[in-house]
Design goal:
Elements: H1 2-16, H2 18-28, H3 33-49, H4 62-73, E1 79-88, E2 93-104, E3 108-115, E4 118-125, E5 128-133, E6 136-137, H5 141-145, H6 161-170, E7 178-183, E8 186-191, E9 202-206, E10 212-217, E11 229-239, E12 242-252, E13 255-267, H7 278-284, E14 297-300
Helix pairs in contact: 2-3, 3-4, 4-6
């Protein structure tokens, strides 16, 4: 009889304290893959402990969502992405050009393109950024107005939770706020605001895959049209276990104004650090492309 009571108490304690026990497991696990697996196990257990009550009983903290997202994206130490970029004007005419992006976490990014016979280089590193067009530094009203679209790459510039959280906070997002939401048929975690509000910067992360699907951007220079600016991540692909969206779409309200379609991904190539050295780029005018770039094409999205 005493043995039965002892077993009953032990089983009761296991039911009442699963999150606490798993929290201890997570805290003392070593870094690396086992840590990512334990984080995923925490998330799964929380939804098991609170079935059907995720909207009111428990929501994963924003910083934990960021760590789970990075664990699933598995950003490499370096990556080069070749892509086609398409801009749409109000008449449906599309301008297409080739672009090459180089990533080297933490925070190093280089974009190179040839647009309308102008060679454009944009580099970010160590908190500084510079844009060169044909070797000259540029900062125009037009570039500021479209700067929000460059934020799409921030999610792939960091491998640590703290690094990415700091970048998101610098964009105006409060990563300490998280809420459940729905994006079409997809259940998501929303960082930065409470669903369904869209007035603040926020990142939407798929609850199942922990991949980002939507970033609502609120530019510092607020637009006069009042339209929501957003970035959508689609068609995810994996190379050497590193994940990257095959397509990225940019919207102003309901209008799609830009797309990115990935052509190739090179994971962990050898990239000289000087390629991200802003001072060296200015001093030496490094050539952006070692080979010719696809010329700009203009096509009509609405023929006839």
């Amino acid at each position: 009889m005493k043995a039965r009571k002892m077993l009953s108490k032990k089983a009761s304690a296991m039911v009442k304290e699963p999150v606490f026990r798993l929290g201890i497991f997570y805290t003392f696990r070593s870094r690396g893959r086992s840590r990512r697996l334990s984080l995923c196990l925490i998330a799964s257990l929380l939804f098991t402990v609170f079935p059907g009550h995720t909207t009111s009983a428990y929501v994963l903290p924003g910083r934990l969502v960021i760590q789970l997202m990075l664990g699933n994206l598995n950003p490499p130490r370096a990556m080069v992405v070749e892509q086609n970029v398409t801009f749409f004007d109000q008449d449906g005419v599309a301008t297409v050009f080739r672009e090459r992006n180089s990533y080297m976490p933490p925070g190093r990014f280089r974009s190179e393109s040839n647009y309308n016979s102008e060679i454009r280089i944009h580099v970010e590193s160590s908190g500084s950024a510079i844009t060169l067009v044909n070797g000259s530094i540029v900062e125009s009203t037009e570039s500021i107005a479209f700067a929000w679209m460059d934020r799409y790459k921030d999610l792939f510039c960091f491998r640590s939770r703290n690094g990415l959280a700091a970048r998101l906070e610098a964009s105006g997002m409060d990563v300490n706020i998280s809420s459940p939401g729905r994006f079409g048929d997809m259940l998501v975690y929303i960082l930065g605001d409470v669903y369904p509000h869209e007035a603040k910067p926020q990142l939407w992360v798929d609850k199942e895959s922990f991949k980002p699907v939507r970033w609502i951007v609120v530019p510092k220079e607020k637009s006069s049209d009042g339209l929501v600016r957003e970035i959508r991540y689609l068609a995810w692909r994996s190379v050497n276990h590193a994940w990257y969206p095959g397509r990225i779409e940019f919207y102003a309200g309901e209008s799609m104004i830009k797309t990115i379609d990935v052509l190739t991904m090179d994971v962990n190539p050898d990239i000289p650090l000087v390629r991200f050295d802003v001072e060296s780029i200015v001093a030496n005018h490094l050539q952006p492309f070692p080979r010719p770039v696809m010329p700009v094409n203009r096509v009509n999205k609405n023929p006839g």
